[in-house]
Design brief:
single chain; 122 residues; mainly alpha; 5 helices; 84% helix; 0% strand
Length: 122
């Protein structure tokens, strides 16, 4: 399962680079609500990615030991995404809803781009 941790470290690094770009955009552009929405959504996307990696590791250990596994955390990831969208609707002056939604998809976009890069390298 160390491969999953290595992949997660690489994805986390990419997401932190994106977050730093978003922070610069928040500080130096007039589109502060858009960038704050991107920051908020991407931070929750990173959290969801961490939960998915942690649950996948536990799933693999349980399968190796012959135990049953209840879930891989889909409900908690969906609940955090729904909470982020509800917060963006509640405070539209701070968080742009489209920015939050795009931010929530960031980890999946990073995963797809990383797969393409790793395929080309091999």
């Amino acid at each position: 399962m160390s491969d999953i941790k290595d992949i997660f470290v690489r994805h986390r690094k990419y997401i932190f680079y994106l977050l730093s770009i978003y922070v610069l955009g928040y500080g130096f552009t007039p589109y502060q609500s858009v960038f704050l929405g991107l920051i908020f959504g991407t931070a929750l996307s990173l959290y969801n990615l961490w939960v998915m990696v942690r649950k996948t590791e536990r799933f693999g250990q349980a399968i190796a030991e012959g135990r049953k596994v209840m879930s891989i955390g889909t409900f908690s990831r969906l609940a955090s995404a729904a909470l982020a969208v509800m917060i963006s609707f509640r405070f539209p002056e701070y968080f742009h809803s489209a920015g939050v939604i795009v931010g929530l998809m960031t980890s999946y976009i990073v995963i797809m781009i990383d797969i393409i890069i790793q395929t080309i390298r091999k």
